[in-house]
Amino acid sequence: MYADRTFSPDPATRDVARRLYASVARLPLICPHGHVDPRVFADPDYHFGTPADLFIIPDHYVLRMLYSQGVPMASLLPAGPNTEADHRRIWQAFADHFYLFRGTPTGMWIRDELRDIFGIEEKLTSASAQRIYDAIAEKLTQPAFQPRALYQRFNIEVLCTTDAATDDLIHHQRIRESGWGERILPTFRPDGVLNIDDPGWRSNLDRLSEVSGVSISDYPSLIRALEERRAFFKQMGATATDHAALTPFTVALSDREADAIFQRALRGQADADDARIFTGHMLMQMARMSIEDGLVMQLHVGALRNHNQAVFGRFGPNKGADIPIATEYTRNLQPLLNAFGNDTRFTLVLFTLDEATYARELAPLAGHYPAVRLGPPWWFHDSLNGMRRFFDQVMETAGIYNTAGFNDDTRAFCSIPARHDLWRRAVCDWLAGLVVRHIVDEDDAREMAEALSYGLARRTYRL
Fold first, then answer.
1. Which residue, among 176, 367, 327, has the nearest Cα to 244 in the 3D structure?
2. Residue 216 and residue 259 in contact, taking contact as beta carbons nearer than 8 Å
3. Which domains does the chain show, CATH number per domain?
4. In Å, how far are 3, 137, 243, 322, 456 from 401, measured between CA atoms?
């Protein structure tokens, strides 16, 4: 593998990028937001399963690309009880079409994982598929390839999971009780009880009542239950919340107005406008609570979930059918930012799937409000080109210190080192361009590289 991959072909820029990268390549990994299941760390003897379990079945990036080229979704998922034959069949279908990932972030991540974690130099093709499957499967049985061992091998300093407000955090408790000593922290995600149009909202509400000990019959009792759960999450080490919404719409309601919508929802009479307004109001309440309890607030918006209804109906969510929509932040966030954005106790990390908002809205907002930080390129833009566009469109207006550094935001645990490495390479290449154009000197660029690779995430998320 070419050591200077992703760096500029210009010799002067490449030389600076190489030096900057050497200064940050081995820094510990800060993982302040992601979706790794905490149960993999709760059991010291946990094994990942098969290569298909690890690389394909849970990965919507992989599924969506293969499906787009006519590979049946059913051929990429176990037909019934997970059998060895099923998983070998899935792996072969993946290898037969691995060429589809040439030049994509997924292709880069998987190539790096195969080489750097499993020591596999051979290209993944139809012919090599079963040899590579066997090599990975054999290593997955070894103690060195269990999650806790890999966590330490990856040099992870802290990893935050994403957990529903109704989660009892039993796996986090078991991690603590085991005395392992590494930092796996929960993150409070209350979408299931805030979005009243969620099909499972009523059952989620019942579960929230159960775990909080608060009988939820009206809006005030909902607020009490959420405050209780936030306190429990913080006691368990949480430093942040996470919120997903279709848009960043926010609005302040009176308690009476909020309860009227809540009561309609309890009766099954709330409409789409009720849901939009209630979510917008609850985002305001989450910001208010963040000022009081110190939890950093993350807001991910702009994904129209389960766009392909046929796939959703047969195979369920997270199969690669979530599609971005155009998003407006300036007006939608004005109520929340006017209420809380000037308070230095509050941190709001914003993520977008609409790159047109980088320079027009997000960088100016982060460059003014003390509370606002910009999260790194997310989902469809978590790529070399997406990172370059982010740097070019955001940094001149907001500067790097109004950004939140990097987070990998992945379910695929073994991709974490590759994702951080790509970010660090992109950072160093971009900064090298500033050095050779005499915009910053190399000493400053080295400090900026360290901040973007490590320090900003650690500071933003209070880790």
1. 327
2. no
3. 11-47+154-460 (3.20.20.140), 48-145 (1.10.2020.10)
4. 29, 43, 23, 31, 7
Q: What is the Cα–Cα distance from 40 to 196, expressed in whole angstroms? A: 31
H or E stretch covering 209: helix 201-212
Amino acid at 33: H
Tell me: the pLDDT tens digits for 184-203? 999 999 999 999 999 999 99
Q: 80-86: list long-range contacts, CB under 8 Å, 24+ apart.
A: 82/49, 82/50, 82/53, 84/50, 86/52
And the tokens for 434? 């500033």
Place of tokens 């094994």: 47
pLDDT tens digits, one per residue of 167-185: 999 999 999 999 998 999 9
DSSP string over 245-305: ESS-------HHHHHHHHHHHHTT---HHHHHHHHHHHHHHHHHHHHHH--EEEEEE-EET
The tens digit of pLDDT for each residue in 396-420 reads 999 999 999 999 999 999 999 999 9
Cα separation, 207 vs 214, in Å, equals: 10
Structure-token pair, residue 436: 């050779």
Tokens of 27: 């820094």
- Residue-wise burial string across 349-380, b where 16 or more C-beta atoms lie within 10 A, e elsewhere: bbbbbbbebbbebbbbbbeebebbbbbbbbbb
Helix axes 416-436, 11-24, angle to 10 degrees: 130
Single out the residue of 149, 171, 263, 164 nearest to residue 212, CA to CA. 164
CA-CA distance, 124 to 131, in Å (whole number)? Answer: 9
CA dist., res. 91 & res. 336, Å (int): 47
Contact assessment for residue 300 and residue 240, using Cβ atoms and an 8 Å cutoff:
no
Contact predicate 188/163, CB 8 Å: yes
- pLDDT per residue as tens digits for the range 310-323: 999 999 999 999 99
